[in-house]
Design goal:
alpha/beta; eight-stranded parallel beta barrel; 12 helices; 8 strands; globular; binds 2-hydroxy-1-(hydroxymethyl)ethyl dihydrogen phosphate
Length: about 260
Amino acid sequence: TTRTPIMAGNWKMNLNHLEAIAHVQKLAFALADKDYEAVEVAVLPPFTDLRSVQTLVDGDKLKIKYGAQDVSQHESGAYTGEISGSMLAKLKCSYVLAGHSERRQYHHETDDVVNAKVKAAFQNGLTPILCVGEELDVREAGNHVDHTLAQVEGGLKDVPAEQAENVVIAYEPVWAIGTGKVCGSDDAQEVCGAIRGKLAELYSQDIADKIRIQYGGSVKSGNVAEIMAKPDIDGALVGGASLDADEFVKIVRFRD
Ligand code: G2H
């Protein structure tokens, strides 16, 4: 199976809508030639940037995809401050993160909430990027694989095969996020390989082979090639390094 690599920039709470336009224009200019077309490129800006990004991408017919960093598990109603999947779909978002570790940690999102968000994404035609990964103490206790696989299973609970085959899974060891500590590529492969094994068990080998698994956590142009060389790693979810357009372009062009 050939899986198209996917490089996604998670901007977190950075770049206002004017900065977003300038940033996406830089990316588009740097990626204007054909070379990168075998790699899918996505940006995940704050909600307030999405309309501007949509207008730019639509107007200039850019190949860059975009999405949101979170979605409500509810369809509509009295949920102050929340954004629904249908609102994101209306803005032609392709992707939405579900269960990023910062949401799990600071907003107490449980696997059940994350599961509801994955379903809300699929119901609205969005592709969820289901984020999983262990904290430092879990890794030190040697329970990182079991912990992460339980998050995969919880996040995909009752998600049918025809939806699940389109999910993207992002393995992000929490201790490697924004810390500059990179999980070694062999350690990342160990968990990503186990995730694919779990997907085969939950669905089928065929479906598991279609699903793209990203690594996330301090990915930079200097370490992306080694990470991407691993058989079960099909892309990167990039935080800090995605805020620098030149650096993100180098990550997208990891094959150069
Ligand atoms: C992990 C990652 C992007 P960073 O959170 O989701 O961030 O690359 O800054 O470690």
